[in-house]
Fold ATP-binding cassette subfamily B protein.
Amino acid sequence: MADKNMVPPANLNGISRPGRGMAAVKPKNFKGTLLRLWNLTKGHRRGLGWILLLSALASGASILSPYITGNVINAIKDGDPITVVLIMLIALYAGEWLVKFLQQFFMASIGQRVIHHIRLTLFEKIKTLPLSFFDRHQHGELMSRLTNDVDNISTTISNSLTLLLTYGFTIIGILTMMLCLSPLLTLVALAGVVLIFFLTKVVTKHTRQLFSAQQKNLGILNGQIEEGISGLSVVKAFCREEEMEREFEEKNEKLCRVSIRALIWSGYLMPLMNVINNLCYVAVAVFSGALYVAGKISGLGLITSFLLYVRQFTRPFVEIANIYNNFQTAVAGAERIFEILDKTPEPEDKKDALPLTHPRGDVVMDHVWFGYTPEKPVLKDISLSIPAGTQVAVVGPTGSGKTTVINLLTRFYDVTGGSITLDGHDLRDYRMQDLRRVFGVVLQDTSLFASSVRDNIAYGQSGAAMEQIKEAARTAGADAFIERLPRSYDTVLEQGGAELSQGERQLLTIARAVLTNAPIMILDEATSSVDTVTEQKIRRAMLKICQGRTSFIIAHRLSTIRDSDLIVLIEDGTIAEMGTHEELIQLGGRYAMMYKTQTGSADI
Ligand SMILES: Nc1ncnc2c1ncn2[C@@H]1O[C@H](COP(=O)(O)OP(=O)(O)OP(=O)(O)O)[C@@H](O)[C@H]1O
């Protein structure tokens, strides 16, 4: 069965364990979401028609075989030949196998095509979402939507749907056959089914809660395991091993207790159901015997057929209850996926958006206001005029809004008040892709990809020749360490750069920016975590790539930016001081104080 919690059906008179895997998450709008899922199968309706037909045929064997078996008994009793009936029976089972195979064949291909489509649409959508969306959602949660939720839908479509259809047809078919054979005996059999149905309902309500609690506790425990492993060095450094173990044990114990209760409850119902099923079987046997003796029913064959039907009748009900829960979980997952698909993407380019290829680089910020959330403005009325070719350093205490300025320039976010212009036009008037290409960026986040060093440097310039890549690495001062790597530029960064030092990663991202040869450079915290020798290297590289270009440098080490044409000190979202290094030192304000603290007064 699809759900990971499910255990294989225990074969107790064909009844699978009830209540197991009942930790279904209820969707908010079951019908609406199901309808949207249905709409996704648009190109596969004919295949689904086949599946429906095959499901009806597949249930045919369960429906017909007891009847044929009854006829075999009748034939033996009457002394008639049974070869033809036996051949029919064998043909029926062979046919069932073929039909089920074809059913699986259609379902697998349709199911996987639909899932392929969902995955692709979802991934395409994520790429268009504004960064503000990711601020509001944990990465882990998004990952879970892309993997677990899609997985759930996949297994449900592939497995549960065919079973649901087949069981549905089986119930209708068996009920019809039983009614045709003997309405009275059918009533007796139905009484047992109704009893089992209600009993299952009562107990599963309880087990569902217990399994939900088990899932929740499992999640908590997994979280602790993940935290423990990823933060192990911190745990060791602060000697917190014992506390960690104690916490783990508490959560482990809780999970253990709730799991035991869940299993006991789900196990408790099974034997009871078995008893009811057997009692029902006995009741039908006694009744049919009495009816036979009274001459109310025709023959032994009918009794045999009927008893076989009773044996098969209860199973589809219990299975459908389980499948329904899987469906609910899958539909709830689909709901979460549709939630992402319904999000507003980044604003599209205006119809008459301007192309931008070789800007001069005049940047003007005019009374700019911005906040990540409406209630907390981060930049407050910032006005700045930067002529083309100026090297601007943005400095200020942690959290003052420096990176936010960069986020607005690259249009990762849009201003909430005022405007930013480039060469006289509002940033929002340009084509987004053109605008982003204008910037060569080295961000705080030194993200590298699990590909070769060469591909990482050429990330923004995929057609670059090897010589250009090496030249960029030389300019960034990254060539020396790259040459020392086992396969030099072809070394694959299997762990996405985690195998390099922070400084090396920064040098690579600088080389990447160099290669773009973009007209405007943005360097955020490029020297924050490297030794002084590397810092000097980076500083030289930065000066080189900033030459003749409008450039924005954010650095905590003020020595790096003292030669900048303009230093802007941001404090609490406003410009506190602005000028050249000398001017600001002369001013003797906050900048002068920060510089003094960092370098010792001698250097001033
Ligand atoms: N994605 C975000 N969502 C909500 N608030 C944010 C987000 N990014 C930053 N902030 C908040 O905006 C303020 C300015 O952040 P910003 O990153 O611009 O500071 P900074 O000056 O670059 O700091 P640092 O020097 O530490 O990098 C901070 O209070 C921060 O908490």
